[in-house]
Design goal:
The complex is a heterodimer of chains A (about 325) and B (about 350).
Chain A lengths: L3 H13 L1 H7 L1 H31 L16 H8 L1 H32 L6 H13 L2 H11 L6 H8 L15 H29 L3 H9 L4 H29 L3 H6 L11 H11 L3 H9 L2 H20 L1
Helix pairs in contact in A: 3-14, 5-9, 5-11, 6-9, 9-11, 11-15, 13-14
Chain B lengths: L18 E10 L2 E10 L5 E5 L6 H9 L6 E6 L2 E2 L10 E4 L11 H12 L3 H14 L15 H13 L5 E5 L7 H18 L2 E6 L2 H7 L2 E6 L2 E6 L1 H6 L4 H6 L6 E4 L4 E4 L5 E2 L9 E13 L3 E8 L7 E7 L12 E7 L4 E3 L13
Parallel strand pairs in B: 3-8, 3-9, 6-7, 7-8
Antiparallel strand pairs in B: 1-2, 1-4, 4-5, 9-10, 11-12, 12-18, 13-17, 14-15, 14-17, 15-16
Helix pairs in contact in B: 2-3, 2-4, 3-4
The chains are: A mainly alpha (about 325), B alpha+beta (about 350).
Chain lengths: ~325, ~350
């Protein structure tokens, strides 16, 4: 009698709780929860990426269902192409120069924002604004700011006497000016994120260590270069990694401001891929152009993450 | 060791390393973190700032270090006003609670950092670092990084880094509180001997009364931004200046009993059965009824209530367990007594020590 009752109860309970046990199982619930994200990534990132790889080794075009496998022909012809080389050079130039400027400015901004001062809230909000605004709207704003006839920047600089009465640079119409303008807008766009990352890195340095450096007699620059920057290095690398990937793969700024012009002087790999693959219909060459930087960017990412890890662990 | 230290003997005439604060205030908005502190350390002294958390002891230390600007008042080191000097110009070295070692540098570079900031030549620097490391027996750790070290080793590195500049004053901010309990006892011993060896004036902040009593030449007991009492460990323990000091020191703290015009205080360890006081002299008899007994190994804590005329006040007696002959049971009444010289009186309004009253 005494043993029978618990048995019956146990059986009842197990039937009632069968479903909840099923969901309590981490394997089941975990898989269920992560499934939408996995499906999303596979369908919208994984599948197109695989297709791009396949296309880049083929002779496929828009408006034809012919599909021939050509191996490395597309890439070979790209390497010999003058316009492609220019786009590759621009991609590297824009990324490298804007990243260096972003790093220096973000570091300075973070050092300012970590201090307490009146109006800090407003300054911080203004600095973070570009990151919150939709990128295309922001760039359209820049298109107007840099307009060849109505540029408010030129007007302002002329009024304040910095530009002479006959000096009116057409920012987006001269190759060198256009390159500078594109880099400036890239900096404007990346700066908020980099600043936030740097701020986090700065805040993660314990106050005790800053105090210790002060007591040990370090001046401002010794503290900055021997304590603050080395301790922030891992997180600065994260900022650089994001910056490189975002800048090297960005198309919006080029598309809105210059469309790669004048004379292809601001064409980058992504815009070139778009114009070749979609506008001109040569899907295969476009895919090959777009994927050209893939191995390089992947290598950069792995390299940066390894450095970040080593400074963390060793 | 002392005479040859730092290669500059015979400088003892001037109190180079005397620290003095003159009516020092530090207010953070409404909060009076340090509220008028005047203390003078003597040369080569181990001075402990003791108090509960939030009493302003760390703020006081940080002001002496120059990491915090006082709202008003002055700080003097070696007779010089240093109130407006940056930390590096004060001739001080500080050890932080977290040790604050530079994680990306080797131990050698950590210790050499203050010397590098002074612009010392490489050869001299190496000699100094080696000397400092040998003082703390950490020579074999010099090529490691801080994260490869144990808590005790890190503490030694922090001390070596502080020592290497030959400061006039050491400032230590709870340097033992990050160590586990067992290590803390040996570290306390080491730190004490280290201070005596290098004979550098040391100001030591702690909330741990055992550390304060064990290491301090003098203790400044602080509460609510004020120094309540400054004296030797024996003075602050046996002769508390006010009720806060009486209640803060000692575990369990002093028994404080309200009478109509005085607060009467006596330590649990002087509150013993009458016959254990034999031959001591003038006693105050306080019969009490036992409510609870705690055996703590070395000590037996006896909780109980005094009789009617003391308002049945709850008191604690601390009997050494070695007095096993005296059996005590709960709910029984015993004749306990305190030597008259051990009874302290406090004014209930000012909470300060007051004239004795007949008991």
């Amino acid at each position: 009698m005494e043993t029978a009752t618990p048995k019956v109860k146990g059986a009842l309970r197990s039937r009632k709780q069968h479903l909840s046990f099923f969901f309590d199982n981490e394997k089941v619930l975990g898989t269920l929860m992560i499934a939408p994200a996995v499906v999303y990534i596979l369908a919208l990132v994984g599948f197109p990426l695989v297709m791009a790889f396949v296309y880049s080794f083929s002779d496929i075009t828009i408006g034809s269902s012919d599909f021939g496998f050509v191996g490395f022909e597309n890439i070979k012809s790209l390497i010999g192409d003058f316009e492609f080389k220019l786009a590759l050079k621009n991609t590297i130039l824009f990324t490298a120069v804007s990243m260096i400027i972003v790093l220096v400015l973000a570091k300075i901004l973070a050092l300012i924002l970590v201090k307490d001062f009146r109006g800090k809230f407003i300054i911080r909000a203004l600095i973070l604004m570009p990151y919150v605004a939709p990128i295309s709207l922001g760039v359209i704003g820049w298109l107007w700011m840099l307009d060849s006839i109505y540029s408010p920047i030129n007007w302002l600089l002329q009024r304040t006497g910095l530009f002479g009465p006959d000096f009116w640079p057409m920012w987006l119409c001269k190759p060198n000016l256009a390159i500078s303008a594109i880099i400036a807008v890239h900096v404007w766009r990346m700066l908020p994120l980099a600043t936030v990352i740097m701020l986090a890195g700065l805040a993660s340095i314990p106050q005790d260590i800053q105090d210790a450096a002060l007591v040990d007699g370090a001046g401002y620059f010794r503290q900055l270069f021997q304590i603050t920057i080395p301790m922030m290095l891992p997180i600065m690398l994260v900022a650089v990694l994001f910056g490189i990937v975002f800048t090297a793969t960005d198309i919006i700024i080029i598309l809105v401001l210059t469309r790669g012009g004048p004379y292809n002087s601001t064409q980058v790999l992504v815009s070139k891929a778009f114009y070749t693959g979609i506008d001109a219909g040569d899907l295969a060459t476009g895919a090959a152009t777009a994927l050209f930087l893939f191995p390089l960017l992947a290598a950069v990412a792995v390299f940066m993450l390894r450095i970040a890890r080593r400074t963390e662990v060793a | 060791m002392q005479s040859t230290r730092f290669g500059k003997p015979n400088q003892k005439e001037e109190p180079l390393s005397q620290v003095e604060t003159q009516s020092l205030f530090k207010h953070f908005g409404e909060v009076k973190a340090v509220d008028g502190v005047d203390i003078v350390s003597s040369d080569e002294e181990f001075l402990v700032l003791l108090g509960p958390s939030g009493c302003g002891k760390t703020t006081l230390l940080r002001m002496i270090a120059g990491l915090e600007k006082p709202t008003s008042g002055d700080i003097l080191i070696g007779g010089q006003v240093v109130t407006h000097l940056p930390p590096r110009a004060r001739g001080i070295a500080m050890v932080f609670q977290s040790y604050a070692l530079y994680p990306h540098m080797t131990i050698y570079k950590n210790i050499a950092f203050p010397l590098k900031a002074m612009g010392m030549a490489k050869d001299d620097m190496k000699k100094k670092v080696d000397w400092s490391a040998s003082m703390l027996a950490i020579e074999r750790l010099l090529q490691r990084k801080p994260r490869e070290l144990s808590g005790g080793e890190r503490q030694r590195v922090a001390l070596a880094r502080a020592l290497v500049r030959e400061p006039n004053v050491f400032l230590l901010d709870e340097p033992l509180s990050n160590l586990d309990a067992k290590l803390r006892t040996s570290a306390r011993e080491e730190l004490y001997r280290f201070q005596k060896d290098v004979s550098i004036t040391t100001i030591y902040v702690t909330h741990d009364q055992v550390e304060a009593m064990g290491m301090g030449d003098r203790i400044a007991v602080m509460n609510a931004g004020k120094v309540r009492q400054l004296g030797t460990p024996d003075e602050v323990y046996s002769d508390p200046a006010d009720m806060f000091v009486a209640g803060f020191l000692g575990s369990p703290p002093m028994n404080l009993i309200e009478t109509p015009d005085r607060i009467v205080g006596f330590r649990p360890e002087s509150f013993l059965p009458q016959q254990m006081h034999e031959g001591i002299g003038d006693l105050v008899s306080l019969p009490f009824t036992v409510t609870r007994i705690e055996n703590l190994g070395a000590d037996r804590l006896v909780y109980g209530k005094l009789e009617e005329r003391f308002g049945h006040a709850a008191v604690i007696a601390n009997l050494p367990t070695s007095f096993t002959s005296y059996a005590i049971e709960t709910k029984q009444r015993y004749d306990f007594a305190v030597p008259r010289k051990d009874v302290k009186f406090f004014d209930p309004r000012t909470e300060l020590r007051a004239e004795p009253i007949p008991l």
